[in-house]
Amino acid sequence: MKALLILFVTAIVVLFAGLSAKRQTLVLLALGGVLIALGATVSDLLVGDTTGWNEMYATMFRFDNYALAFGAVILLTTALLFGLSGWGFRHLSDTLGDNYGLILFSICGAFCMFSFTNMIMLFLGIEILSIPLYVLAGSRRDNLASNEAALKYFLMGSFATGILLFGITLVYGSCGTFDLQGIASAVQSGRATGNMFSIGILLIVAGLSFKVSAVPFHFWAPDVYSGSPNMITAFMATVVKTAGFAAFYRLFSTAFVDSGEVWNVAIAAIAALTMTLANTTALFQKDFKRMMAYSSISHAGYLLLAILVAGQTGAASAILLYTLAYSIATVCAFAVYMTVAEQNADGNFSAFNGLSKKEPLLAAVMAISVLSLAGIPPTVGFFGKYFLFTAAFEAYPWLIVLAVINSAISIYYYFKVIIAMYFTSDENAYTVSVPVAFRWVMLVGILLIGLLTVSPDTILGLIP
Q1: Is residue 195 exposed (0-12), middle (13-18) or buried (19+ Cβ within 10 Å)?
Q2: 48 pLDDT band (50/70/90 cuts)?
Q3: Could you give the CA distance from residue 297 to residue 365 in angstroms, rounded to a whole number?
């Protein structure tokens, strides 16, 4: 709760400071607020006592280890992104404070999404997260692709919200409560049965699947990701996806854990379609950013495996480690992409030709990042997939085999970048100048990947 209040106050301060403060001041204010919130979250997670907060807001929030751990993940990811933002937001002038404020408000919604105990708060959290993003996706007002991305995201998001609300309404009609424990009790007692309850759960699955860009509700993601400003795309691919899955897991591990016969087949089918279609489509992409969009969709397919075994020992820890590893690697990959593509107005794989000879640091960071995303041992991405697949193997062995096959397929398109950087010589290779802040963020990101590779148990032990 302390982190949520810190973020809200920081967002207000940054909004007003944006009227007159210098760019560097705004960056420091936003980054400082996130780091303070991160410190408070880690303190509560490791040594703090949140019993008072939980008693005060028990009907709407629960700031347990689960919520605090995911809060730390998104705050760490946001801190890395804000480290890139001084240069990444260079095209903004009078709206810089607005952008920082909207991002911080969006994070407030993310906190609501994985600490909710009431389905009304889940809906409010999703809307608080999403509405600023509709604006941020179109923040490049002079760019047609950015405007198109904002419109598509808004329209598709509105439909998904309507579907989610219909589902919540039907579940409420069956159970007589919005409280997660109350819904679980209604399921256990046999009161929550019948077509209305089943349809309600399936509509909720559809609404949440849109938020995490799972097939067949993914069609908005490639266009929105590729059209949005690079900083916002990185934010959507990491923080938004992490918040979506944290909410997805909390809802199904608490309220619907005893009604698996209603939703497990549907989610298993969505997971299989998501990882297969996304990885297959990514093979044919020539633009790095669009490839990363399909990569993000494929990772949604893997993460859905944790939803299938929601409530089982190790599932929550596995999804935490996976989202952390995925987020850090994605931020590092986007840092390299922004450095190369934005300076040379070329987002194709050919833009990386010969990068290892001109900027060895950039090439090394990109290589480690995509290796982790592909799940190549001994990177932390491998351990993330290992623990996730292990948690679901006993119940869904066929789905794990399919996931392993898809992971092997993904190696092909991830290695396109490595081949371009290390094995393709280009006498006319682009000249790249790396901002100092980018070097620091990439070094921190690679250090974190290394530490997580050596000691993944540190993260797995955060959620009992």
Answers
A1: exposed
A2: low
A3: 22
